[in-house]
């Protein structure tokens, strides 16, 4: 399978889950669909499609992190597609956690949805923003 195909299909695998969390956060089906812990693993299928045949290069880049080696790995189409799949999977993992934490702490959908949108594009910012909102919510409930 080509690197471009893997890159092109990684995000679409995650989109239905993102759409449910952002647009239908209160729907009971959203909770049911997102409940299984394997949901974030779906984009990792594409990760393994590339990681297995390029395991030697991946291992070399990761065993002793060196900026030059990592830069070289990421400059390849398979390296960039592999990291893209990694990012999509872990962003979905973080978003799923945010979704369930927001429900636990009764954070309203109109606050949650923009935070999830931020998480899609810039997950570290989305996570930090959610943690701030969550912390404020916990303090206000105490």
Short description:
With 142 residues, this protein is mainly alpha-helical.
Spans of at least 5 consecutive residues with low confidence: none
Q: What proportion of the residues is helical, as a percent range? A: over 70%
Strand content: under 5%
Total of helices: 8
Q: Could you give the distance between the termini? A: 53 Å
- Radius of gyration (CA) equals 17 Å
Average residue pLDDT: 94
Secondary-structure content class: mainly alpha
Succession of helices and strands: HHHHHHHH
Q: Outline, from the CA principal axes?
A: elongated
Number of strands: 0
Q: Summarize the biggest pleated sheet.
A: none
Transmembrane segments: 6-26, 38-56, 76-99, 111-133
Keywords: Membrane, Transmembrane, Transmembrane helix
Protein name: ABA4-like family protein
Organism: Amycolatopsis albidoflavus
Structure description:
Keywords: Membrane, Transmembrane, Transmembrane helix. The chain crosses the membrane at residues 6-26, 38-56, 76-99, 111-133. This is ABA4-like family protein. InterPro entries: ABA4-like. Pfam families: ABA4-like (PF14108). The chain is mostly helical and 142 residues long. The chain has 8 helices and no strands. It has helices at 3-23, 28-34, 42-51, 55-63, 67-74, 77-104, 109-121, 123-141. Helix 1 packs antiparallel against helix 7 (109-121). The radius of gyration is 17 Å and the shape is elongated. 27% of the residues are buried.
How do the strands and helices of this protein lay out in sequence?
Elements (H helix, E strand, L loop, with lengths): L2 H21 L4 H7 L7 H10 L3 H9 L3 H8 L2 H28 L4 H13 L1 H19 L1
Helix pairs in contact: 1-3, 1-6, 1-7, 3-6, 6-7, 6-8, 7-8
Protein name: ABA4-like family protein
Keywords: Membrane, Transmembrane, Transmembrane helix
Pfam families: ABA4-like
């Amino acid at each position: 399978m080509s690197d471009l195909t893997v890159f092109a299909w990684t995000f679409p695998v995650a989109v239905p889950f993102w759409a449910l969390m952002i647009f239908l956060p209160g729907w009971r089906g959203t909770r049911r669909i997102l409940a299984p812990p394997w949901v974030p693993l779906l984009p990792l299928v594409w990760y393994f499609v590339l990681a297995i045949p390029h395991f030697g290069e991946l291992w070399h880049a990761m065993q002793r992190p060196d900026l030059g080696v990592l830069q070289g790995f990421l400059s390849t189409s398979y390296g960039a597609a592999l990291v893209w799949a990694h990012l999509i999977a872990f962003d979905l993992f973080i978003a799923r956690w945010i979704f369930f934490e927001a429900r636990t702490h009764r954070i309203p959908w109109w606050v949650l949805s923009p935070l999830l949108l931020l998480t899609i594009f810039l997950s570290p910012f989305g996570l930090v923003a959610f943690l701030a909102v969550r912390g404020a919510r916990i303090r206000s409930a105490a």
